[in-house]
Amino acid sequence: MNALLDKLTLKALNSGVCSGHSRWVTSTAAPISSDNPTTGEEIAQVIPADAAAYDTLVADAQAAFQQWRSVPAPKRGEVIRDLGALLREYREPLGELVSLETGKIRAEGVGEVQEMIDICDFAVGLSRQLYGLTMHSERPAHRMYEQWHPIGAIGIITAFNFPVAVWSWNAALAAVCGDTMVWKPSELAPLCAVAVQHLANRVMADHGLSGVFTLAVGTVGQRMAEDVRLPLISFTGSIPTGRRVAQTVAGRLGRSLLELGGNNAILVSDKADLDLATRAIVFGAVGTAGQRCTSTRRIIAHETIVDELAARLVNAYQQVRIGDPLQPGTLMGPLITLRAVEAMGHALERAVADGGKLLTGGKTRPDLGARFVEPTILRMPAQSEIVREETFAPILYILTYRTLEEALELHNGVPQGLSSAIFTDSLREAEQFLSASGSDCGIANVNLGTSGAEIGGAFGGEKDTGGGRESGSDAWKAYMRRQTTTINGSRDLPLAQGITFE
Length: 502
Ligand code: UN1
Known about the structure:
Elements: H1 2-7, E1 13-15, E2 17-18, E3 32-35, E4 42-47, H2 51-68, H3 73-89, H4 91-102, H5 106-126, E5 134-136, E6 142-150, E7 153-157, H6 165-177, E8 180-184, H7 190-206, E9 213-216, H8 221-226, E10 232-236, H9 239-251, E11 255-259, E12 264-268, H10 274-286, E13 296-302, H11 306-318, H12 338-353, E14 357-360, E15 376-379, H13 385-388, E16 395-401, H14 404-412, E17 416-417, E18 419-423, H15 427-434, E19 443-446, E20 458-459, E21 462-463, E22 470-471, E23 480-488
Parallel strand pairs: 1-4, 7-8, 7-10, 8-9, 10-11, 12-13, 12-18, 13-16, 15-16, 18-19
Antiparallel strand pairs: 2-9, 3-4, 5-6, 6-23, 14-15, 17-21, 20-22
Helix pairs in contact: 3-5, 3-6, 3-7, 4-5, 4-7, 5-6, 10-11
Bound molecules: 2-aminohexanedioic acid.
Residues 115, 161-162, 166, 236, 292-294, 451-453 line the site of 2-aminohexanedioic acid.
């Protein structure tokens, strides 16, 4: 473990407040301990920001913005290209640290770093494509167009489950857009953030920069939401916290970009390839121990194939190797905290009280460690309240349907709207699922699962998921301000709408 920490410039005690190479800010706050969820043992400690350190950091990010906003976007892209190159070099150790600190299996940890690399590549290309539209003016010899300008120093608040990738979706785009940023990572995964800050520092130093990428570990979320110096807060996390952040940011008329919880379902039709569906469901529901916002939580299966599908799933679940996430062959590691284990237990009690029939799992695995649980499947008679909630754990609820309309009603009958999928070989059913009266989610897939989205698409969802879009497509627009410009190239002053004012 020490060799890994050394490779990533981490020590037993680390500063968690930084705005650049040799700009680690001192703080009087008590260190927080980062635990390995597999063993419960401490990995290392991080000193979070106190109020003064936080203020220094925001001031640094604001000062950096004064210059950074005027650097040509393709030049800003070069910085992100170097960040991507460094991440390629550190893919394995950083992926391993993600696995160590969050308990996701090594392949998923490394995959997460790959996601960072991918978004860097995307952002480099984007740095030459921050396009605005041009419009034909109704006035002679006038020209209209819109341009996109950087918005300022922004806040990025990320969750434990994707401790580095979510930062990179925001950071790579924000940087090429000309913003500087303050990152508040989850207190459950501060070491990943410190390791990434070290890499960002190296890139900034190579380009003679500081304050573009800054880090503030600690309980600074509320302060950020209230801080008028941060015009945009990008928040990834739970629905209740996201609601509070959004309300606070709205109170000062700031902008928030929300990526909150999901309650993602897969519809499995009687015309589905059950082999494919089973594999996708197992990855979606068991992967990351059910702790992705895109995890598959509900199966809505046609009544004629539900028994067959359930049998296949139970069989697959019983072969899932649970254990040390860094061990080759392990498919599921621990949950992040003891509280998460308790929350899973409570959810299972409520589901059983609602008439849920336990098909497999349901127990904790103290023999493996205090935070280990079995992946669990319940067959539910109805979509009761607990099924409509997001429990961040590997629980899969199976519901049945007779008509596709009925299935869609169940599908959309939850407060969240992030990801969704249908398994069917019927084009007609797939099209119905993708139509305006189909899935109400931000992501809708056909014959693939709900999790594991590529970075090229816009990522996010509707309803309680918060409506934000991050990552690919035109998500970059959230990080910029739009300016509509009209230029008069004539010697007259015609007014719009044909108004005369003489
Ligand atoms: C999250 O859980 O917050 O689509 C993000 C996926 C990943 C991202 C998940 N690319 O599952």
